[in-house]
Amino acid sequence: MRFAKGHGTENDFVILPDPDGELELTEETVRLLCDRRAGLGGDGILRVVRTSARGEALLPAARTGERPEWFMDYRNADGSVAEMCGNGIRVFARYLLHAGLVSGDRFEIGTRDGAKQVTVEEDGQITIDMGRVEMQGSSSAKLARQVVHGAQISVGNPHLACEVSGPISGVDLSEPPVLDPEAFPEGANVEVYGHVGPGTLQMRVFERGSGETRSCGTGIVAAASAATPAGEGATWKVRVPGGECTVLLDASGARLRGPAVIVAEGETCLA
Fold first, then answer.
1. Structural domain harbouring 212
2. What band does 54 get if pLDDT is binned at 50, 70 and 90?
3. Might you give the EC number(s) for this enzyme (predicted)?
4. Are residues 157 and 94 part of one domain?
5. How far apart are alpha carbons 144 and 137 in whole angstroms?
């Protein structure tokens, strides 16, 4: 099995080129590949497959009205399927460029949350049009040593973004958060964030299906949205343990900008 490895602000992924959709990607295989001791190690899997090889319909592309050529089949490290991944799609875009599968500085990628527009910036960073962020009210979560309250948000996948007082380094994310099952029947990513300067947030995240990660792109968007007064636009720098991303919010939705790096390619016999 061919693979590549990449990361976006140290949220890392195993990339599996499978253009014709021939791989049998079981939960067990995903868990093994993502295992940091017995496998290649990663927060998730990005399977690179042509949309024509998939049996399920996709939402129309945002601008062209046509189906994108490439689909990001994203799996969490525990083998579960996820709707969207903000860092993962930047890494996916970087891999498409690296492998010569797309050209130019603007193209679209299919996801389970519909087609996402990609823009490659002059400085090499990648911007993803994340679409509209859905604010769904408020909820709470029990962490290992405290209860946190925050905004229930959909960024194509479910989030609970919680502003906390005091250093976010003191929040214990070592155990899976306990969520309201009525609010989050399929679980959610939980973000804790705080203001560290004008237009700047600091954030940590416990990702559904992966645990605490160094970064989460959709979580970064969720935290920025939670910190923005209703009806207003804003630009936020969001610092995570793995680096920094920029979120641009306006009436059309959210855009996420940040780095994406391919660090290795090779073959594995794990599967």
1. 134-251
2. confident
3. 5.1.1.7
4. no
5. 23
76 is in an annotated binding site: yes
- Distances in Å between the Cα of 26 and the Cα atoms of 79, 176, 193, 271 are 7, 23, 34, 10
Task: Looking at the structure, tell me whether residues 79 and 148 fall in a common domain.
Answer: no
How many structural domains comprise the chain? 2
Residues ≥6 apart with Cβ < 8 Å to 42:
5, 12, 13, 14, 33, 34, 77
CA distance 70 to 240: 29
Q: Are residues 144 and 105 in the same domain?
A: no
Known catalytic residues? 85, 216
Residues 77, 61 share a domain: yes
Distance between CA 216 and CA 83 in Å, rounded? 13
Query: Does the annotation list 75 as a binding residue?
Result: no
100 annotated ligand-binding residue: no
pLDDT value at residue 32: 97
Per residue in 119-141, pLDDT (tens digit) is 999 999 999 999 999 999 999 99
Tell whether 181 and 244 lie within a shared domain.
yes
86 has binding-site annotation: yes
